[in-house]
Amino acid sequence: KHDQAKYMAAFFAKLAENICSANGSNLKTVDKLIIESRLAIKGRATIVIGILLLLVAFLGYMASYQQAARMAVSEEERMIPIYGIEKYMLWIQEDPAAKDTRELFQNLKPVAGPNYILSVFAVVGPMLAAIWGALFFGNEFVWRTAKVRAVHYGWVSNIKTKIVVVLFASLIVGLIGSLVGLLGGHISFYLIIRATEIAKWVGDPVIVTSWWQQILVLWLGLSFYGLLGGFIALIFKSPVFGAVIGFTVPYIEAYIGQMLPMWWLPHTAYSELMSGSFTYLTGSIVRIGSNPSFAAFSPSLPWAVVGGWLFLICASMIILSKWQEIA
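Above: the chain sequence. Below: its structure as tokens.
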């Protein structure tokens, strides 16, 4: 799995490099990237979506902390008078019946922080990314700046630059999510050990993959859905259409999946990547199960499917921009 993640990262890094260098000098490319990045950062959508993601992360930690604190008080009052502190400590650490209790406290440990936040971002992020991508590409038509961009920079070059900005922005979200998770884990664990001694007795959770693979999975999801929203916005020359259709794609997939095999659909493959890359502990506000559609295939298939869709959407946007008429 780690090798697959490295190959995917190297492939799309090369893709971004080729997109940037395909038109104009390096200096011009850097200038365009700086301009588009500033527009993306200054946009209200970026600020609102960033706040929403951080709010979801904060509420997730608060919900887990409150649930753990309530359970600790209940368990201590019920079990310690009967079994004593030593037997209760052993029960928490080893008994299969205490699995949910253990995982609830493990979810608040620093080592689980990045896994927890990235797993939440991986579920919520693509829907928000579709909206952001639609606004990022479609607002050119709303603000009537598309024609100016097409004349001064070239419409194809402008779209290529925006694609690269989306790819890098998705990576930055993953890195920020890891740091927020690490910080949140230290804060939540400090608070819970002040509330109860149980947290000190519980070992660290087993995280199934590395942070980098989790960041790569999140990057694939955010990049694909962000560009999907942008692609639809380009087709209809409207950010509203891009946002609505991009947001509802998972539901459209569920309908298609009733008639056709689902393994080739992007959200189905992405869900399979999430189920194999994140550890879902008791108390987490999200949980993704493995899809039976992939049981008979190689573990590399969901990587190939999502990566293929991302490459297809990048190529489609560039092709569309070559023949698109900007009035």
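The radius of gyration is 23 Å.
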